[in-house]
Design goal:
The protein has 17 helices and 26 strands. The radius of gyration is 28 Å and the shape is globular. The chain has a five-stranded parallel sheet, with helices on one face. Strand 14, helix 10 and strand 15 form a beta-alpha-beta unit. The chain is an alpha/beta fold. 32% of the residues are buried. Helices cover 32% and strands 21% of the residues. The N and C termini lie far apart (71 Å). It folds into four domains: 88 residues, Alpha-Beta Complex (Homing Intron 3 (I-Ppo) Encoded Endonuclease, Chain A); 59 residues, Single alpha-helices involved in coiled-coils or other helix-helix interfaces (Up-down Bundle); 246 residues, TIM Barrel, CATH 3.20.20; 83 residues, no CATH class.
Length: 538
């Protein structure tokens, strides 16, 4: 049998005449019938070392090297690394061109390893855990430790010092420490509070200011045990800068969610997908039309789902304001300040009625404020709805325990209190109290989270799409094959500042729901984690 060749004598044109490469599946399909080849068959066999081999013109090649020739037009000068360490997985996102040192560092755990952590073993003579790390051709001794966690921490610190995270994207030491950190979060009330911290990069960018990276890292480490996740300090308008900050935070021992902005080159999206299984997406202008936003998001989701339509990674939607966008795509999580911003403008978010039932997947915005300039515009204010529409909406409002409220008026509209210049309120309600509107809109998103399909679900999926629009049949995704993540619930985080955290927490708790909040780092001194931490002990 001929040996595997590493010669660079195969032209890309010749390869494409014979085979078709699928970047998502990582397979080569025969385009011509030759010898044992048949058109439409998957080319290649699995060798004894686990790599796929393909014979072309009486020479054998590794499929992962052929993938580079097919996609880039050249054979790699050094080695091709399988990022997930599965040698037969030749999908393009799983391959990268690295030197021998980097390829060696991204290795699987040996079958003889009993600790489950590379570089950590039990020293019987010392009766302690021992850590070491390989640097170039030498093995560096890191010390003896009483506990496994201390030994693993020493190993991870050394990996960061010697640049291992640049090569090994799924360090066994890092995964162990992350798992231990998650265990420490499981308190009596941890399942009632769910917090994500955002760097607030966009808000600061609009004010022409800069966030200090060291201060942000310090803040995250201080409160990390209370956090479900934290967002990378992204650089608005600079994709490379955002990538650099992501790597800096990882090197600092954190595991932030990187943010891909829809206007950035897709190469950055694929690189994030190679490095982590949880990414965020942002960069949607609020001024854009719903149709244009849909086009942008459709294009994005085509890149992050597999051939079955299931997400390849968990995706967090940053600042999603459109309910249609929330329900159209299989988000793992998302945040929105819509509940707060609309109520402060005197607007309620209520479900539309279909077949006599409220459909939580379709939202209707209606103004109710007594100060609204649209009170005279038909269909925009509750006072100018048809009697049928108004009665139905009022019935829904009352069923949730809310009242519209009343204010003293004269022939010109609302009468102000002469003593303080404020609205003369007779009875507080949705029409004259923004806090009650906050809670009404909050209820809409709590019910929406309950009604969303179990994640992950496939996109596009006609069956689910019909359920989202009709809402007559109970939603289920048990028949969707190819699930890569455990079944969970899409999480909707409440964003926005100026909230009475204690009161809002009690409202959410009374509904039997988890208090999910997206907090912004720049506002930490006003309202932030220090106001929410007491809820963990209630």
């Amino acid at each position: 049998m001929k040996q595997i060749t590493h010669k660079k004598d195969l032209p890309q044109k010749r390869l494409k005449e014979l085979l078709l490469y699928d970047p998502d599946a990582g397979t080569f399909t025969c385009l011509v019938s030759r010898s044992k080849w048949r058109v439409g068959n998957i080319a290649g066999t699995c060798g004894t070392r686990g790599y796929i081999q393909i014979r072309i013109d009486n020479k054998r090649y590794y499929a992962h090297r052929l993938a580079f020739l097919y996609m880039e037009g050249y054979f790699p000068e050094h080695q091709v690394d399988h990022i997930n360490r599965i040698k037969s997985d030749n999908s393009w996102k799983n391959l990268r061109h690295v030197n021998n040192q980097c390829n060696t560092r991204n290795c699987s755990i040996s079958k003889r390893n009993k600790s489950g952590i590379i570089g950590v073993c039990w020293n019987k003579r010392a009766n302690k855990w021992q850590s070491d790390i390989k640097t170039n051709s030498d093995v560096k001794y890191l010390g003896l430790f009483k506990t496994l966690k201390e030994a693993v921490q020493a190993r991870w610190d050394a990996e960061v010092k010697y640049g291992y995270p640049n090569c090994n994207t799924t360090s066994s030491a890092f995964l162990y420490l992350q798992k231990e950190s998650n265990k420490s979060k499981k308190g009596s009330n941890m399942n009632k509070v769910d917090i994500i911290v955002d760097s607030g990069a966009f808000s600061v960018f609009t004010k022409g200011k800069v966030i200090d990276m060291d201060a942000y890292i310090t803040y995250i480490k201080k409160w990390e045990k209370y956090l479900t996740a934290h967002i990378v300090l992204d650089v608005i308008g600079d994709a490379e800068g955002s990538m650099t900050n992501y790597k800096i935070m990882r090197d600092a021992g954190l595991n932030p969610i990187p943010i891909y902005h829809l206007h950035e080159p897709e190469e950055y999206l694929y690189e994030y997908m190679r490095m982590t299984d949880y990414i965020g997406v942002g960069g949607v202008a609020s001024r854009m039309t719903a149709r244009n936003n849909k086009i942008l998001f459709d294009s994005f989701w085509k890149k992050v789902v597999d051939k079955n339509g299931l997400p390849k990674v968990k995706v967090h939607g940053m600042g999603i304001t459109d309910v249609d966008v929330m329900t159209r795509y299989p988000w793992a999580s998302l945040d929105s300040s819509t509940w707060l911003m609309t109520s402060r403008r005197g607007i309620l978010i209520a479900p539309k009625f279909e077949n006599g039932k409220p459909n939580p997947f379709k939202a209707k915005r209606i103004e109710v404020s007594t100060k609204s300039p649209h009170r005279q515009h038909y269909g925009q204010h509750i006072e100018n709805l048809s009697k049928f529409q108004r009665d139905k909406l009022l019935g829904y409002i009352h069923s949730l325990g809310f009242k519209m409220g009343t204010s003293r008026r004269d022939k010109n509209g609302v009468t102000l209190n002469k003593e303080n210049g404020r609205e003369a309120i007779i009875e507080k309600g949705l029409s004259n109290n923004y806090i009650q509107r906050d809670y009404f809109n909050l209820n809409f998103f709590l019910e929406l989270e309950k009604a969303l399909p179990d994640w992950p679900w496939s996109w596009p999926n006609e069956k689910i799409s019909q359920q989202l629009s009709v809402f007559d049949t109970p939603i289920t995704t048990n028949d969707v094959p190819g699930r890569r993540f455990r079944k969970t619930r899409t999480r909707i985080y409440l964003a926005g500042e100026g909230v009475k955290e204690a009161d809002t927490f009690e409202v959410v708790k009374s509904k039997g729901c988890v208090y999910r909040r997206m907090l912004s780092f720049p506002f930490r001194k006003v309202k932030g984690l220090k106001d929410i931490v007491p809820f963990f002990d209630q």
